[in-house]
């Protein structure tokens, strides 16, 4: 009896082992498969993002002009000293934040209002307005910059011509060579360019808000403004947070083309930002070490901002589940 | 779990491999890198005799297997100049190029960054049309060679015959020619004759000096409502600023190029005279392009610029129906101005003796009699060889018909080199010099204080 039990148990164990053996390849392949799917993306990220990032970190410690055949010279932290002592660095940092602040009305406030107003129009009119507002977004940045260069030209531009003809000014203003104005113009042009995209995002978000909320609020006697503040705004908060994050993180990138075409950072470095500075150090001054140091500063500052925004976003955004 | 570990290890290894590759590229040092930080060039490839002079023992060019020379040019990228350069390229390739075995290929590079990025990407870049201000910096950033280090001295001597000595000095750094003057001009004062006549001024006479120029501008503004003068405070690389400072007896760099000294009494005085034009609203500034547009559209009566835009102004005047006049830029206190050079130099980076020979054939053509006849007659730049202006086979007819070119050629003998900024920080110094002019001239800032601040900043860079 005991032997029979032993035999039976042995058989069971063997069967269990066979089962396990039969299952193992299935398990391994099911574990490998997702990684195989991810592998091309991981390799691309490693090759195109992590490797250049680490190279950039190393370049911060070298003095090199990128000329093939030349030896980078190890200089320790002197690139950071040079960067922090550079006269344009302070204004570049301040301007970076200036552009961020100036982007917020164009990325959030105005688009939310426009999207809310469009919501009450007939579908066909809505479609026409949305298309018109989105139009600047599809214009190439360099073409946009050139159009504004013509419009705002000191002697031949339409804007100055109107201002002088109307008697507001005796002489035309040089918008892109006047301290303060150059920066403002770049911010306004960038804002004008991105307002369409933000409006489209908010329009899409508003159309997802259930009309039942508005109907219920109406029945309770609330007015249009009240409904906007109490229903629309809270339900748009995830999109608002997304747009805030995008405008903060990409304001430098979006202003780059206009700085390059219209002012080259001038007059006397008052319209430059950290992004343009990185480019100028690398490709204007051929100083890859200082450029990498500026890039690292940019990465650290914006990395922290991105993390903070992520935390805030989780707290503030309200999702209608 | 094991699989995760294996994959994590694999990822880490691939990352490390990436880092290693990065380290390798950072540490990659070619043994041919020479002391000035240049890549292995023909300076290494060419043979030098006991005296250090380069010698070419044999002709390495073969018409059956032509060598391509890539010439990066901002003029070629310009719609106004491009056709002249195209003509030069076609003539060379169908003539001497075919005969010797060299193909000239212009590469449009409107901002000069393409040459730099292509050099850094390891592409073939043989000749670059470079601004004078950055030549010293180009030794490091482009890896250019001195002409004496890559071409035989007897070839240089034979080709440079007929070129004024001071023009050959325009692109010299540390007593070596790193740039050969190519397309350049002295500062010329263009005049819209009709606007001057409306203001009661005779446009057939040039203003005696900057004080008279100011009086004219005030008169023009009052009579016509247009600006008297269009002049960019930063004026491209600052070559007009140099000329204005030199004309009042000031210096930009000291003799051994170790410090800037424009914040001198004479320098401040020149800037204060110039600033009055903007503060009183009788001159328009902006960028060079904006100033040119203001003059061409008839919004400004006079304009200081190189003759490179001469043909554009001729057609603007013809279209709008006004008469164009041109004179050398005035000086101070009734004296003639000290002319500097605008424009560009040819810089070279051959990587072998064969390429050096091919490049030399291109240079001989584009800076020779035929090349300069095209450059002057089709664009308006100065001919580096003044004798061409008197030769009926070349430029005599053109110069006779265009007196502004003759006035420019007359100044050739007096031309002083526009500033070539010290190499290590040439780009930063060029920017600061332009910023200094803009801030001192177009804002309420005190001239003396602004010049001093920028002088100190620039000297900090030079002494680093």
How is this structure best described in words?
The complex is a heterodimer of chains A (321) and B (464). Chain A is mainly alpha-helical and 321 residues long. Chain A folds into two domains: 2-42; 80-316, MetI-like fold, CATH 1.10.3720. Chain A contains eleven helices and two strands; from the N terminus they run H-E-E-H-H-H-H-H-H-H-H-H-H. In chain A, strands 1-2 form a two-stranded antiparallel sheet. The termini of chain A are far apart. In chain B, the strands form four sheets. Chain B has a five-stranded mixed sheet. A five-stranded mixed sheet of chain B has the order 11-10-12-9-13. In chain B, strands 1-2 form a two-stranded antiparallel ribbon. Chain B has helices at residues 2-27, 42-45, 74-77, 82-94, 96-100, 113-120, 135-141, 147-150, 153-160, 165-168, 193-198, 210-224, 239-247, 265-279, 288-296, 310-320, 353-366, 369-378, 396-401, 403-410, 426-442, 447-462, and strands spanning 47-48, 54-55, 67-73, 102-108, 127-131, 172-173, 176-177, 180-181, 188-192, 227-230, 283-284, 300-305, 324-328, 344-348. Chain B has two domains: 42-184 and 343-414, Periplasmic binding protein-like II (D-Maltodextrin-Binding Protein, domain 2, 3-Layer(aba) Sandwich); 188-340 and 425-462, Periplasmic binding protein-like II (D-Maltodextrin-Binding Protein, domain 2), CATH 3.40.190.10. Chain B has 464 residues and is of the alpha/beta class. The longest helix of chain B has 26 residues, at 2-27. The relative contact order of chain B is 0.15. Chain A: This is Multiple sugar transport system permease protein. Chain A: It holds the Pfam family BPD_transp_1. Chain A: It is found in: Cell membrane.
């Amino acid at each position: 009896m005991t032997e029979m039990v032993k035999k039976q148990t042995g058989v069971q164990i063997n069967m269990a082992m066979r089962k396990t053996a039969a299952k193992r390849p299935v398990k391994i392949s099911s574990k490998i498969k997702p990684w195989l799917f991810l592998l091309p993306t991981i390799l691309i990220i490693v090759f195109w993002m992590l490797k250049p990032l680490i190279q950039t970190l190393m370049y911060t410690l070298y003095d090199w002009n990128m000329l093939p055949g030349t030896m980078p010279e190890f200089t320790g932290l002197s690139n950071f000293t040079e960067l922090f002592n550079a006269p344009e660095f302070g204004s570049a940092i301040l301007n970076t934040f200036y552009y961020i602040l100036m982007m917020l009305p164009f990325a959030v406030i105005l688009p939310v209002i426009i999207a809310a107003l469009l919501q009450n129009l007939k579908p066909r009119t809505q479609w026409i307005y949305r298309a018109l507002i989105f139009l600047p977004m599809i214009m190439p940045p360099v073409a946009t910059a050139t159009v504004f260069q013509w419009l705002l030209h000191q002697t031949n531009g339409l804007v100055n011509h109107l201002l002088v003809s109307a008697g507001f000014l005796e002489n035309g203003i040089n918008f892109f060579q006047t301290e303060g104005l150059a920066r403002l113009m770049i911010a306004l042009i960038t804002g004008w360019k991105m307002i369409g995209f933000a409006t489209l995002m908010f329009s899409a978000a508003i159309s997802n808000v259930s009309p039942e909320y508005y109907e219920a609020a109406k029945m309770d006697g609330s007015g249009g403004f009240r409904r906007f503040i109490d229903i629309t705004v809270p339900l748009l908060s995830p999109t608002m947070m997304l747009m805030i994050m995008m405008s903060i993180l990409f304001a430098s990138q979006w202003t780059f083309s206009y700085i390059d075409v219209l002012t080259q950072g001038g007059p006397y470095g008052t319209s430059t930002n950290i992004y343009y500075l990185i480019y100028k150090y690398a490709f204007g001054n051929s100083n890859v070490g200082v450029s990498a140091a500026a890039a690292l500063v940019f990465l650290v500052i914006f990395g922290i901002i991105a993390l903070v925004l992520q935390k805030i976003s989780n707290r503030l955004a309200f999702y209608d589940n | 779990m094991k699989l995760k570990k294996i994959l994590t290890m694999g990822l880490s290894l691939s990352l490390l491999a990436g880092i290693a590759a990065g380290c390798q590229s950072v540490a990659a040092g070619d043994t041919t890198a020479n002391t000035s930080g240049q890549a292995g060039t023909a300076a290494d490839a060419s043979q030098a005799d006991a005296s250090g002079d380069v010698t070419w023992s044999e002709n390495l060019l073969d018409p059956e297997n032509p060598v391509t020379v890539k010439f990066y040019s901002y003029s070629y990228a310009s719609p106004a100049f491009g056709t002249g350069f195209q003509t030069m390229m076609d003539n060379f390739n169908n003539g001497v190029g075919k005969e010797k075995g060299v193909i000239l290929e212009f590469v449009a590079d409107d901002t000069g960054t393409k040459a730099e990025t292509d050099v850094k990407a390891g592409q073939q870049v043989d000749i670059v049309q470079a601004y004078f201000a950055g030549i010293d910096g180009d030794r490091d950033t482009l890896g250019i060679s001195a002409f004496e280090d890559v071409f035989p001295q007897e070839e240089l001597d034979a080709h440079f015959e007929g070129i004024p000595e001071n023009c050959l000095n325009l692109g010299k750094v540390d007593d070596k020619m790193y740039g050969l003057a190519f397309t350049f001009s002295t500062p010329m004062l263009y005049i819209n004759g009709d606007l001057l006549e409306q203001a009661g001024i005779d446009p057939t006479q040039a203003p005696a000096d900057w004080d008279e120029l100011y009086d004219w501008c005030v008169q023009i503004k009052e009579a016509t409502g247009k600006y008297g003068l269009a002049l960019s405070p930063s004026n491209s690389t600052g070559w007009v600023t140099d000329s204005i400072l030199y004309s009042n007896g000031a210096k930009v760099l000291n003799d051994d190029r170790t410090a800037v000294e424009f914040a001198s009494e004479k320098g401040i005085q020149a800037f204060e005279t110039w600033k009055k034009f903007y503060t009183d609203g009788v001159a328009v500034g902006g960028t060079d392009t904006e100033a040119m547009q203001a003059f061409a559209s008839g919004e400004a009566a006079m304009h200081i610029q190189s003759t490179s835009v001469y043909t554009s102004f001729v057609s603007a005047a013809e279209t709008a129906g006004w008469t164009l006049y041109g004179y050398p830029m005035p000086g101070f206190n009734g004296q003639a101005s000290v002319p500097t050079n605008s424009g560009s130099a040819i810089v070279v980076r051959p990587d072998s003796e064969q390429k050096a020979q091919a490049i030399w054939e291109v240079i001989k053509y584009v800076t020779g009699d035929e090349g300069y006849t095209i450059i002057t007659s089709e664009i308006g730049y100065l001919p580096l060889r003044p004798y061409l202006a008197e030769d009926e086979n070349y430029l005599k007819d053109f110069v006779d018909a265009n007196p502004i070119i003759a006035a420019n050629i007359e100044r050739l003998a007096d031309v002083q080199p526009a500033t070539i900024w010290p190499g290590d920080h040439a780009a930063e110094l060029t920017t600061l010099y332009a910023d200094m002019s803009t801030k001192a001239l177009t804002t309420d800032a005190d001239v003396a204080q602004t010049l001093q601040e920028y002088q100190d900043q620039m000297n900090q860079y030079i002494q680093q």
